[in-house]
């Protein structure tokens, strides 16, 4: 009988096609689940799967009950999700039904920033100094203490993604502004940690035969000016070979330290001007923002297929794609000012430009652009490939400048 892959939260205009194509290439039948309101408008996306069912991927009990009563449960080779909020359900299914996936320790480290920080610190990895705050008063106290040693601090949720509710604190006023927008509590604690001055990167990898293997390093670009939402990525990161090798070795050691032995990982880190590498968060899921596309463009490796192959055979290695491989690839996001869109020009010229690899614009004339406070607030992007990171950067600059989005 044909083995099956259960995908939680499987509707995604970015990820779905790659997941389903690479699952089928491994001979797997794809069982897609997602929330009803996401399945109904998905159209062709859900058609990629062999069957689709409504299921809330954030409801761990509902996911456990669904698999318990699934009539072909013995055919499930594994469960997979590219969503951060589906990881608790993945961990529950791994524990209950014995699917291959993150164990208890690895799950806690990859979904809880505080636990990740403390685990890496105990293993000898450089980490920001950190205080867990469960109230506004706790933030005030921690700021008073840490600001004696650090000029700038970061306030961020204990769990979360997309740079939502991340604040730079460097004065009593900035603390008051942050606490006017978020309310730390026992149910939603925040971290106050020292600001790391350095360039930001991520490592994209997969565990092979229980050992972490970095496939590619990605350079991260932020909007800046106290806004930590990402505005672009380029892979492979333009690092000196010796520094790149050191970063890869450090990341693989950190992934091992948190106990992750199966599946995909996305590990963040900073490279400081001193050459020190400071580990950030480690996730047991792929990176967002089309990072999986960039990784596959530059490595030729089937990122998802390599995991699915190991679901079927624990000794399987990396799976290669038949598509063309590029020297570098990148993405840049359109960042028009907030306001009502009155004109869009140049977007139709992008496809003719050298290195063009895709684009999307989610706004039209008459729509309102919101201030970017979360990655979901961005209104579109362009993808490019090239021979080097420098060439990709140049091509992305030209593409972004080609498109004019005028607002009022």
Protein architecture, described:
It is a single chain. The chain is an alpha+beta fold and 408 residues long. The protein has helices at 16-25, 36-39, 44-47, 60-69, 87-97, 104-111, 113-122, 136-146, 172-181, 241-257, 291-299, 303-312, 389-402, and strands at residues 4-8, 29-34, 51-54, 76-80, 130-133, 153-157, 167-169, 190-194, 199-208, 211-224, 227-235, 264-271, 277-283, 328-333, 339-345, 356-361, 368-369, 380-386, 404-407. 31% of the residues lie in helices and 29% in strands. It has an eight-stranded antiparallel β-sheet, with helices on both faces. It is globular and about 65 Å long. The termini are far apart.
Counting H and I runs of at least 4 residues, what is the number of helices? 13
Give the terminus-to-terminus CA distance: 60 Å
Structural class: alpha+beta
Please bin the fraction of helical residues: 25-40%
Short description:
The protein has 408 residues and is an alpha+beta fold. It is 31% helix and 29% strand. Helix 4 crosses helix 5 and helix 6 packs across helix 7.
Keywords:
408 residues, alpha+beta, 13 helices, 31% helix, 29% strand
List the helices and strands and how they pair.
Elements: E1 4-8, H1 16-25, E2 29-34, H2 36-39, H3 44-47, E3 51-54, H4 60-69, E4 76-80, H5 87-97, H6 104-111, H7 113-122, E5 130-133, H8 136-146, E6 153-157, E7 167-169, H9 172-181, E8 190-194, E9 199-208, E10 211-224, E11 227-235, H10 241-257, E12 264-271, E13 277-283, H11 291-299, H12 303-312, E14 328-333, E15 339-345, E16 356-361, E17 368-369, E18 380-386, H13 389-402, E19 404-407
Parallel strand pairs: 1-2, 1-4, 2-3
Antiparallel strand pairs: 5-8, 6-7, 6-8, 9-10, 9-12, 10-11, 11-14, 12-13, 14-18, 15-17, 15-19, 16-18
């Amino acid at each position: 009988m044909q083995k099956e892959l259960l995908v939680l939260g499987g509707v995604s205009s970015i990820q779905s096609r790659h997941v389903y194509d690479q699952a089928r290439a491994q001979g797997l039948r794809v069982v897609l689940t997602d929330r009803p309101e996401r399945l109904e408008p998905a159209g062709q996306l859900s058609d990629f799967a062999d069957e689709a069912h409504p299921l809330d991927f954030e409801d761990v009990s509902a996911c456990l009950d669904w698999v318990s009563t699934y009539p072909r449960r013995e055919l499930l080779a594994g469960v997979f999700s590219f969503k951060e909020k589906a990881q608790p359900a993945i961990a529950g299914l791994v524990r209950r039904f014995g699917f291959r996936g993150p164990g208890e320790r690895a799950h806690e480290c990859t979904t809880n920033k505080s636990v990740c920080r403390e685990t890496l610190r105990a293993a000898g990895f450089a980490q920001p100094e950190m205080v867990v705050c469960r109230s506004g008063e706790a933030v005030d106290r921690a700021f008073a203490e840490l600001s004696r040693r650090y000029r700038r601090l970061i306030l961020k949720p204990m769990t979360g993604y997309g740079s939502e509710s991340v604040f730079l604190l460097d004065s009593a006023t900035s603390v008051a502004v942050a606490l006017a927008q978020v309310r730390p509590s026992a149910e939603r604690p925040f971290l106050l940690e020292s600001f790391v001055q350095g360039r930001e990167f991520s490592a994209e990898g997969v565990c092979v035969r229980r050992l972490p293997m970095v496939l590619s390093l990605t350079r991260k670009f932020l909007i800046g000016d106290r806004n930590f939402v990402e505005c672009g990525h380029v892979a492979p990161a333009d690092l000196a070979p010796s520094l790149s090798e050191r970063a890869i070795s450090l990341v693989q050691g950190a992934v091992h330290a948190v106990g992750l032995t199966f599946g995909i990982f996305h590990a963040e880190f900073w490279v400081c001007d001193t050459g020190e590498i400071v580990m950030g968060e480690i996730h047991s899921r792929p990176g967002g923002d089309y990072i999986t596309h960039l990784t596959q463009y530059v490595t030729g490796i089937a990122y998802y297929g390599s995991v699915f192959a190991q679901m079927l055979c624990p000794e399987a290695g990396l799976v290669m794609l038949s598509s063309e491989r590029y020297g570098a690839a990148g993405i840049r996001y359109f960042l028009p000012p907030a306001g009502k869109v009155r004109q869009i020009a140049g977007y139709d010229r992008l496809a003719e430009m050298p290195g063009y690899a895709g684009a999307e614009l989610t706004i039209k004339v008459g729509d309102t652009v919101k201030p970017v406070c979360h990655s979901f607030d961005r209104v579109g992007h362009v993808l490019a490939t090239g021979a080097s990171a420098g060439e990709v950067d140049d091509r992305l600059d030209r593409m972004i400048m080609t498109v004019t989005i005028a607002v009022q």
